[in-house]
Amino acid sequence: MKIKSFCIIFVLIFLSTGIYASGENISYKPNSFLFSHFLINNLPGAYFYPSFFENFAPDTTLLIEENDGFSLIDSPRIYYEGDSFINFNWSYNGFSINSSLDHGAPGILLPFSSIKQYELKGESPFYKDYGLNFISSAPEKTSSQIVLSTVWSNLGSYVPLATSMVDPHATTAGRNPVLYSNRRKILSNFLVDYIYCKKFRRSTLYFNFSYFDIERQFNDFNEFDSVFMEHGKLVLLHAEYEKKYKDSSLHITGVFNDLSRDRMSAELGRLPQETRKKEKQSIFSGLRFKKKNFNLRLSFLHESENLSPSRLNYLKDLKDIDGEGFFPFEQLGSFYGNVFRLNFDVPFKFYKINKKTEVDIFADLKFAFLRGSEDKFDFNPISFDRSPYLVILWNEGKSYHNTNTQMKIGTILNTTVSDNFSLFAKLLFQYSSLRFRSSENNLSLLSAGFDSGIMLFKNKNPEILLSYGTNPLRIKRKCKFFPGKR
User: Fold this and answer.
1) For 234, phi and psi rounded to 5 degrees?
2) CA dihedral sign, ordered 89, 340, 94, 264
3) Is residue 256's pLDDT more than 90?
4) Would residue 155 be called left, alpha or beta, if left means φ above 0 and alpha means ψ between -120 and 50 degrees?
5) pLDDT of res. 15
6) Which of 113, 219, 360, 424 could be a cystine partner for 125, CB 3.0 to 4.6 Å?
7) Please, are residues 286 and 238 in contact by the beta-carbon 8 Å criterion?
8) Which pLDDT score is estimated for 209?
9) Cis amide linkage into residue 381, ω under 30° from 0
10) Are 330 and 380 in contact (CB under 8 A)?
């Protein structure tokens, strides 16, 4: 592991001057990290976005286990810049793709061959939001490509004769009797990825497809040194049309996802009987119109999710292996989310007495419609250290629907005072609301935020940014945890 880490550091630091492929569009942005297409193609596991967070992205912590796509079918938990994972933002070519059903997760994933760069942005006066942006672009010429990938497990150690160097080794009979000989791992992993691109005189049409199939092994803490299996699959489709005009461009895109897994929450250390079966479909469509001083985006995201229990009315022991879930509180049933978004920005710049000032006025409108039909267990016995404690009797599950609205408007200002001194500021106002069937439960909030700072030695080494700000409060998009009056 140390040798592998050293090799990655060597590539990223000592070869950084030539690390990008010839002709790749790389532009520096403060307080951001751009992971190039060259790195995605050449570093191990970089095709899988969870592996990017686990192995390459600075200042991020992936709160679930990842290795070579192990967690690709899991809901990601990204801890970044001290903020909770439920507030992490996801976007695709500037379109917001935050899920309306899963806290801190993307509503869609892109086929692997369609991702050209990862752009990780931090909270600062430079950007409207922070988080990860999947950057996709068409190939440079008419082409097609197919990629096949698989994993062989149980190949052993990186170092030959490793077991003879540590006595007793964890795999020998003299090991610590409380350690498991079997641990979570990939049993099989199969990937098919295809891309087709057709170039016309002033337009481009391209299509991407990915199929990912994985079987994993997890520890079963019901019985010492036992395991259980999970099977999952992921189907990803993406199509995009680009049209270039004299001084503008038009992009029309569509994405479809189909995800299924039979042991949801196994990655969190849950017992087999506490896991759920998950079937989820997502559809995204977007339109982007771009001119020199005007950018417009329209998008629609639909998500449907069905969660069913692996076992009914199971016993829950409060002497939990890691405290992840004390009570059987997970949601069950069918849930749906439809999100419409409109956002635009008007960037312009002007010069006065050899000083350049850039202004970006932006607005973002979001309307989310969520509904669900909850299912419940009949009952759940509760024990502590195998001693009876109580029995939970559940009410009958019912349906609900609610509406979440967010409207945000603001401006970003950047003034270059001198070659070594720049001023930045961001000011925004935000309105958010949550509405139920019963109007007496409705919520609304109007708040403001700002972020301002100075930068010393811009585009030099070292570059110093000093800033302070506060984010406006908002009513979260996870509306399904706020059922209306019944």
Assistant:
1) -140, 125
2) positive
3) yes
4) alpha
5) 41
6) 424
7) no
8) 95
9) no
10) no
